[in-house]
Write a structure and sequence with these properties.
The chain has helices at about 5-10, 15-20, 30-50, 50-65, 80-95, 130-140, 145-155, 160-170, 170-185, 190-195, 205-220. The chain is an all-alpha fold. It has a single domain, classed as RNA polymerase sigma factor, region 2, helix turn helix motif (Rna Polymerase Sigma Factor, Chain: A, Orthogonal Bundle), CATH 1.10.1740.10.
Length: about 230
Amino acid sequence: MELLEIARCEAWTDEQVVERVLAGETGLYEIIMRRYNQRLYRVVRSILRDDDETEDVMQDAYVRAYQHLRQFESRAAFSTWVTRIAVHEALARLRRRNRFAPLENADEDGEIPLSAATQFPDPEQNTSQSEIARMLEEAILALPEPYRVVLMLRDVEEMSTADTAASLSISEENVKVRLHRGRALVRKALYTRTGSQAKTAFAFMGARCDHVVERVFVRLAAPAESDRPV
């Protein structure tokens, strides 16, 4: 799809894009993918902690979403719907990996001791934006998975409590509890120092974004995959 055409259609709502895709303008699905590549990368990466697997799962999620577009109900936000699909795909991959062992140095509750963050530089140190983003990524990825995913959606993606709960299929109260506990595990000094730089973490743009878009269209052009419920 030409960039000028994408720019013209960018103002459309998700629902309008989906309606046009279902009407046969399949190339417009690229708008959806580019609109949510960053979010899906962040949430899937927070679950799997592996870049290659993350891209695979993103492709799986987009293919499944495309195959089940007619099941999408506008009563829920499309962003929530596609995020939930990605979360389910990532958790399924995690189960297949059979990696449920607790992180090293975790306590009985699976928490990472706050002392693990003592290696970060003093707040007064002049740190580059890329270094801040790297430290924030490391701090979040060190958390146990339930807190890690909630933190990614709420603090990095800035999703609402309700949308986060819907994406993860848990209660809003559970989201609040996990968010509170997750924040407590990441040293306050780290969050204070990074501030607005949180949104630069877990970037997924440029060639990597293009790669996912291209691979999804290749898969959509191939013989239909086995149909699974969303």
